[in-house]
Amino acid sequence: MGKVIVVTSGKGGVGKTTSTAALGAALAQRNERVVVVDFDVGLRNLDLVMGAERRVVYDLINVIQGEAKLSQALIRDKRLETLFLLPASQTRDKDNLTPEGVERVITELKRVFDWVICDSPAGIESGATLAMRHADMAVVVTNPEVSSVRDSDRIIGLLDSKTMKAERGERMEKHLLLTRYDANRAERGDMLKVEDVLEILSIPLIGIIPESMDVLRASNIGAPVTLADARSAPAMAYFDAARRLAGEVLPITIPGEKRGIFGKIFARRAA
Amino acid sequence: MTIFNLFRKQRSAPTARERLQVLLAHERSSNGSDLVSLLREEILAVIAKHVQVDSDKVQVKMDRDENVTILEIDVEIPLGAVSQAA
């Protein structure tokens, strides 16, 4: 039976879709069977970030409404054999996303895949609560910035009350993924530090993704960050996060910290 | 640390951290129910029961710090505004 992960944040634009694609690809690069599911009905983007936007025929709503079989709607990644995408509908109303339908699809996916990664829409409405409903664990994507931290706190509250796990009285496993982190700005006191965010949200850290040009470059070409350039700093951070998701214990490193004099000179030039 | 720091802008991250800690302490304890707005409405309803109040003459202010919330309700009661006897 596969594990269901929800990638969520409350706030939009913090990197949920980027992280879903990167973590999904990173796990698939370990030869695990992965499906990434887009729950953002009406504003789908996971297909675009994965580079599969021209191959979408059926979507999650079609499957829920019985207009397509799950196997027809799943899109296999062109680069990774074990990575699949279940896109969201771009045209249908999000009310078509029914709790019963979602449950049926997730149950079926769990039987086939090792990992079912649900990309939540922003906000706290039905799309977001349905995306987290059947999760075994949650990845809370947060930027080191006040509005993102506040919204993450709200989402953590929902994870602890509105999910199946919570309703059964079980503990929802939650992990913080800190994205767009700039160690130099944090060091100068211009950005919340890792330990500030950890202290405020008090959930364990699964990774720190540095602010990087490589993320935009990857989405420009339609490849998950870990596939676009596996040696880039954000890709390596996502690989580590994926290994921790899979249960490995790795020391957390803060990307970009303790740069030598050459690094500093280089950073000045780049800036 | 150095004299140059005197000329630098004040660091903003500690402020962000403090503001978040105060805000979230309140949001977590409120637990979805908005006690402050409930109190505000009920208090004003009680006053309105006895006094004809002009809604423009009511000022409600709130201030929160780490430990307490202060709800300040300022009602201007004009002379002779007492309607029914209490």
TrEMBL record, chain A:
Domain CobQ/CobB/MinD/ParA nucleotide binding: from-to ranges: 5-224
Entry's Gene Ontology BP terms: division septum assembly; negative regulation of cell division
Matches recorded under InterPro entries: CobQ/CobB/MinD/ParA_Nub-bd_dom, MinD, MinD_FleN, P-loop_NTPase, ParA/MinD_ATPase
Transmembrane segments: none
Gene Ontology CC annotation, any one: cytosol
Keyword Magnesium: no
Taxonomy, superkingdom: Bacteria
Annotated GO MF terms: ATP binding; ATP hydrolysis activity
Family: Belongs to the ParA family. MinD subfamily.
Protein name (record): Septum site-determining protein MinD
Record organism: Neorhizobium galegae bv. officinalis bv. officinalis str. HAMBI 1141
TrEMBL record, chain B:
Top-level lineage group: Bacteria
InterPro entries, alphabetized: MinE, MinE_sf
GO biological process: cell division; regulation of division septum assembly
Pfam families noted in UniProt: MinE (PF03776)
Keyword annotations of the record: Cell cycle, Cell division
Family listed: Belongs to the MinE family.
HAMAP family for this protein: MinE
Role of this protein: Prevents the cell division inhibition by proteins MinC and MinD at internal division sites while permitting inhibition at polar sites. This ensures cell division at the proper site by restricting the formation of a division septum at the midpoint of the long axis of the cell.
Protein name as annotated: Cell division topological specificity factor
Organism, as annotated: Neorhizobium galegae (Rhizobium galegae)
Highest classification ranks of the organism: Bacteria, Pseudomonadati, Pseudomonadota, Alphaproteobacteria, Hyphomicrobiales
